[in-house]
Input
Amino acid sequence: MIIARSKLRMLKRLAMKTGIRLPRKYKRLLCKKCGELLIPGRTVRVRVKSRRQKHVVQTCLNCGYMRRFIINRKKD
Ligand SMILES: [Zn+2]
Output
């Protein structure tokens, strides 16, 4: 886990240096504020809320940064 975290941090730093944007799957894994690797149940709290629009709330347990993802349902 520690190795993966440092690798991701390195990757992020490299991306910032070179101006290359990180792929979406990596972006979602990192806290936008503190750069913490987000592991559900460990460093991030994930909650699904279904008021009006169904969405997922990710809360970084390191800095408290909250992020919302709206779940789009294509079945209509
Ligand atoms: Zn954070």
In short: The mean pLDDT is 81. Residues 57 and 68 are 5 Å apart (CA to CA). The two ends are 40 Å apart (CA to CA).
